[in-house]
Structure formats: C-alpha cells, structure tokens
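Subject: Re: docking follow-up (nicotinamide-adenine-dinucleotide)

Dear J.,

Thanks for your patience while I sorted out the input files. As discussed at Tuesday's group meeting, I've set up the holo structure prediction with nicotinamide-adenine-dinucleotide included as the bound ligand rather than trying to dock it afterwards. The sequence and the ligand SMILES I used are pasted below, so you can double-check that they match what you have on your end before we go further.
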Amino acid sequence: LSRFNKLCIVGLGYIGLPTASTFASCGMNVLGVDINAGIIDTLMSGRIHIHEPGLLEVVQKGIETGKLKVANKPAPADAFIIAVPTPFYDGKKADLRAVKAAAHSIVPVLQKGNLVILESTSPPRTTMDIVAPILEESGLEAGKDFYLAYSPERVLPGKILRELIENDRVIGGITSESAEAGRDLYSCFVKGQIVLTDSTTAEMVKLMENTYRDINIAIANEFSRLANRFGVDVWEAIPIANRHPRVDILHPGIGVGGHCISVDPWFFVEAAPDLTNMIRTAREVNDSQPFTVLDLARNALGSLDGKRIAVLGLAYKANVDDLRESPAVEIVETLVQYRASVIACEPYKPDALYDDFEVCGKIEDSVLDADAVLFLVPHQEFVNLDIQTIVENAPTAVIIDAVNCLAIEKWEDAGFTVYRLGDGKRKAVPRLV
Ligand SMILES: NC(=O)c1ccc[n+]([C@@H]2O[C@H](COP(=O)([O-])OP(=O)(O)OC[C@H]3O[C@@H](n4cnc5c(N)ncnc54)[C@H](O)[C@@H]3O)[C@@H](O)[C@H]2O)c1
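The structure tokens for the complex came back this morning:
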C-alpha cells in the first residue's frame, strides 16, 4: 500500500462508485460520500443505483469486507477524490456548484500532508483558480501543506471497471510533488501508463479528447445529410472512404448525448468564445441532428399528426441506462409536439417517467398496432430483434432505422418499407440542376 491508505471519495455516481469500490478491492479503506440520501440508503442495503456490468459484485464485496463504507459527508482521510457532476446551465455555461460544494465539504477535515484530486471534468484552470482557494480556507496552503491534482476520467460506460484499470491515466499536479502523490495513489490499481503533467494541461487534455470526438461525429452527421441530398447511401460511402490509409470517418447518428461529449466542448467555448468557431459549429451540427431524424420520420409517414410511433431506445447510446442529454429523448419529445403518440421501449430504464409519453421495457408492448417503428439506439436487444415480433404485433408498420442497426434487406423481404438515416439511395432524389 502507498502512503495514502485512507481514502474519501466525494460523489458516488457513474465515476465515483466504481472508483471507490476499485480502491476498496485493492485493500484501501474507502469512505464513499454522497449528498443524495437515497443513494446512501440503496448502497447500505446492498444494492446499487446505476447499471454497470460487474459493479454490484465489487460494491457488495467492499461493503461486506468493511473496506468500503458510505456516508453523507467527508471524514478525515489521507486522500480525497472529488467526482461530482459538472453539467452546464442554460446558455451552455459550466455549472461548477457541485465541485465548489464538494471542495467546501472537505475543508473542515483537511489535514497537512493530505492529497486532494479533482476528477470531475472541468474548464481549464478550475483546479488552480477555484478548488485551491476553497481548500485554502482550511488555513493550509495548496501545494505546500497539502497536495492538489487534477485527474480526468476517460472510462467508457459499460466497461468502466475494466477501463479504470487498463486505460492510461493523466495526473496533473499544481506542483510536481502533487502529481507524484497522485501517481502513488492510483498506482494501487492502474495498469495503464500514468502520465504526469500540470493541472491545467490535464484539464485541457480531457476537454480536447471529447471535443475531438464531437467534431469527428459532427462531420459524419453532416456527411449523412449530404448523402441524403445527393442520392448516396452514407453507410456505403463511409467504408469506401475509410479504405484511404489516413481516413477514419466515424458513424453518423441521431446526435450526441450523455454527460461528456455533448457538454465538455462548451467549456472551451465559454472560456474562449473568440477562439472556438469550429468547436461551436460542431456542437451546433450535433445538436441539430435530431431534426435530421425528424425529417426522416416525416418523410416516412407524411404527417406525424395522430400517428402511433413505437420508439426503440431512449438512452444516449447503446447498452447503457443513461438518459442524460439523450438526443433520443429530445426526438421523442419533439414527435409528441407534432402530435404523434409515442410509446418508447427502453429495456435499461423501463420505469423512466415522462409527462408526454409512455415508457416500457418490452419491445412487444411498445410496437402494438404501431404505424411506425423508429430505431433510435442500437441496443443489442434491438439489433437481434426477431422480425416476427413486429410481423405479429404491427404488420403494417413502416420501419425507420436512424442508427443503421438493421439488416435492411431481410426486413424488406418480409414486406416492410424501411427508411434509413443518410440513405439517399432509398428515396427518389430530384434533379439538382
Ligand atoms: N459518466 C461518465 O462516463 C464520465 C466519464 C468521464 C468523466 N465524467 C465526469 O465525471 C464527473 C462525475 O460524473 P458522473 O457521471 O459520475 O456523475 P453522476 O451524476 O453519476 O454522479 C455524481 C454524484 O455526485 C453526487 N454529488 C453531487 N454534489 C455532491 C456533493 N457536494 N457532495 C457529495 N456528493 C455530491 C450526486 O448526488 C451524484 O450521486 C463529471 O464531471 C463528469 O463529467 C463522467
């Protein structure tokens, strides 16, 4: 074990809980802290509040062995990790209230020689300009009396436990000793390389990674619109283009959701509006992609008014239960505004509640007598869907595949009309000149 044996993790969500239980499983004494009483109750009763493969087992083991404890406020420890949400306000401004509150909650228990790590994705300079001054309200000086570092998280939901261990980890210290202290802490379980730098570089690296992904998705989405205009099937064109040895175009989709890629680039735009034209434009392209899907639905059904639409998938991406910032939810809400009646099937969150439409967990229940079945998320269960399920429950439905998850020919052979995002070959294109 390192010099940090007692750890306190503030925020027990998708990042904090897997991190806390992984530290516990390598023998550290971990206190997980969350202000949400419901989460603490759930964990105390041996259950977990998020869906993540393998997580329940490690959390239960941590609780049983006594290595993982939970509480509603921090207690003295050797090291603290802050993993609270950093969403944005209206106007796409970073909402750092949770980070500030978490830092304030550590102040009364902070001691000389402690290490504090911010893991929440944050605008550049947050660690130095916002977190350090709050922690210094303890009377201790950052970088001198206690170590302070920023270490971003790059795990993929669905594979969090594996990636926590295997991914390379960046640790940016406000001093080089702080970065080294961070390395001592994480080397308890990280098998990937640990790269040390300063805190602002680490903050910027995290935002650069997600901004790069966002821009690449935006160009794929724009290609899907162009293909539609020119009578080209984007799903045929992209793999051909990708045969170029230095080209790697991503898949178009219904937009970008979740807590990270759709949010983080705005932190750059807010911090430096004069330098971020391309970043802002990419965000706008991805934010408007749901309307490309609505156009596809309108094209398939004529008017949406009064149509019964079964929507398959609400999560922001395949095989996860996370509905935050999900473009699928936005699409459904807009369909309802156009007076379509929607039942959404989300097997990962069957009890999600919305005012304007129903959610269920079974495909059969959502497609009954539907005029159209709209695929918005390529969950494995939808990809594997037996055509017979639709034949039996909604034989005349139009199929709209917004995420290219179906073997279209099979559906057409079964008598369905299929519309697919970015597939301009499946519609008559008027002469352009
Ligand atoms: N989810 C991901 O895949 C992912 C990936 C990389 C980075 N991140 C970043 O990690 C951070 C955490 O994200 P998440 O997905 O775990 O969020 P989350 O919403 O799942 O969990 C955050 C938890 O923090 C708790 N919390 C809020 N304020 C608190 C406070 N003052 N004290 C104690 N607990 C508090 C909330 O109740 C919640 O349970 C964010 O900055 C996010 O951008 C997330």
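A couple of observations from a first look. The chain has a mean pLDDT of 95. The first helix runs from residue 16 to 25.

Let me know if you'd like me to rerun anything.

Best regards,
T.
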